[in-house]
Amino acid sequence: MGTNEILTLVVYFGAFIAIFYLFIIWPRRKQEKKHSEMLAGLRKGDKVVTIGGIKGEIAKVKDDTFLVRVNDNTEIEFLKKAIAYKVED
């Protein structure tokens, strides 16, 4: 292998890493940051949907979990990561 071939290989590899970062890693980090901010802003009474599709209202906020009221007599405890999004009224 000549020096030009090795240099070309390094340039292609660097371009591949840059494209991978721009199209996969960077948008995912941005999305995770937005989701974390949304979770930090959730309060009692907010309506949410879980990643499993369960709709409910936050009844209690704990350190790592939420108690979600799904009907008048039923509350289910979910990890904060399991909340997909907040329902805007």
Automatic annotation (TrEMBL):
Q: Does Transmembrane count among this protein's keywords?
A: yes
Q: Alphabetically, which GO biological process terms does the record hold?
A: protein transport
Tell me the superkingdom of the source: Bacteria
Regions that span the bilayer: 6-26
Gene Ontology cellular component list = plasma membrane
Which keywords fit this entry according to its UniProt record? Cell membrane, Membrane, Protein transport, Translocation, Transmembrane, Transmembrane helix, Transport
In terms of Pfam families, this protein maps to: YajC
Regarding the membrane, this protein is recorded as: Single-pass membrane protein
The record's SMART domains line, in alphabetical order, gives: YajC
| Keyword Membrane appears in the UniProt entry | yes
Annotated InterPro entries? Preprotein_translocase_YajC (IPR003849)
> Secretion signal: which residues?
none
Q: Where in the cell is it found?
A: Cell membrane
Q: Which family does it belong to?
A: Belongs to the YajC family.
Give the matching NCBIfam families: yajC
According to UniProt, the name of this protein is: Protein translocase subunit yajC
